[in-house]
Amino acid sequence: MAELRRRAVAGIPRREAGLVVCANLVRIFQTEGVEVQALQGLDLTVAEGEMIAVVGASGSGKSTLLGILSGQDVPTAGGAEVAGHDLLAMKRHERLRYRRRTVGFVLQQTSRNLLPYLSAAENVMLPMTYAGIRRSRRRARAEELLDLLSVGHCRDRTPDTLSGGEQQRVAIGVANANEPRVLFADEPTGQLDTATSDEVFAALRRANEELGVTVVVVTHDALVSEQVQRTVRIRDGRTSTEVLRQVSTGEDGVEVHTAEEYAVLDRSGRLQLPGEFTERLHLRKRVRLVLESDHVGVWPDEAARRARADAQDAAGGGPEH
Ligand SMILES: Nc1ncnc2c1ncn2[C@@H]1O[C@H](COP(=O)(O)OP(=O)(O)OP(=O)(O)O)[C@@H](O)[C@H]1O
């Protein structure tokens, strides 16, 4: 009953399509009496098998979101479900199991993803030990994963003898060791040069395509965000826009790549206009909405625009453009 009430308050439908579903997600941090709202009612749905990028300015809430989805942190309010696990209701034991089995995680700092005194293969086998998988199976799966990620040649080497890109590809192997449903990667190419980033991204894509794991990558790297079908932008703790990319083949047989930007409409019908739109047209405080048969027009507030023009005239500033 309490669960139903919470869902009603959070506005979460009982079942919603998607392996990852965040609804009206809120995370407030309290430090020394100061409250920071890192997530302010974030909505996000990721379908099973998808590979998406999450982008946004520093401090917009990306790492907070990943911390919650990977089971390391607990939201203050709202709803978050991953592969049927309710992340707000999970008890300690289920949380531990969830972190070991349901999700995998790759961090930006190459050195934090691997244990320095274990070989690449032993690093990949370690999570399987915790999951109780027998030794022969552990070794075989570790080798399969390292081969798939093109780091089979690194299996007996310790991380200090591997390049940054090799370490991150081994880390993707570790994150996939227990056949997780979702792989979260927080700036996995942040410390790498372009060519190496490309190899790491290719390994993530291979994990997505060959292992079927759903992938959510937080990135500042345009090379990564422009190569996935969907990029979600977070602004002020909410999803604000999405870019959807498609590849189609024209009549002449040439591949055509298209990318379209969409604003995200939340459950209450709110949407956030991109900053460059509001600045270009001086949209502030209120706008006029006009419902047309197939779209909604958003117009500057005429009275405010006139007042601004008058003020500029009075100041001798000339007409506004
Ligand atoms: N443990 C914490 N205690 C207090 N405030 C926090 C904590 N973690 C994050 N914050 C604050 O929450 C907001 C969102 O931070 P978050 O790290 O999620 O942003 P981000 O988009 O990942 O940024 P970056 O790209 O710089 O990593 C920031 O204002 C940050 O200072």
UniProtKB/TrEMBL annotation:
Secretion signal span: none
Entry-linked Pfam families: ABC_tran (PF00005)
In this protein, which residues make up the domain named ABC transporter? 23-261
Keyword tags: ATP-binding, Nucleotide-binding, Transport
* Gene Ontology molecular-function annotations: ATP binding
Q: Which domain of life is it from?
A: Bacteria
Gene3D superfamilies on file:
P-loop containing nucleotide triphosphate hydrolases
Q: Which InterPro entries match?
A: AAA+_ATPase, ABC_transporter-like_ATP-bd, ABC_transpr_LolD-like, MacB-like_ATP-bd, P-loop_NTPase
Would you tell me the protein name for this molecule? ABC transporter ATP-binding protein
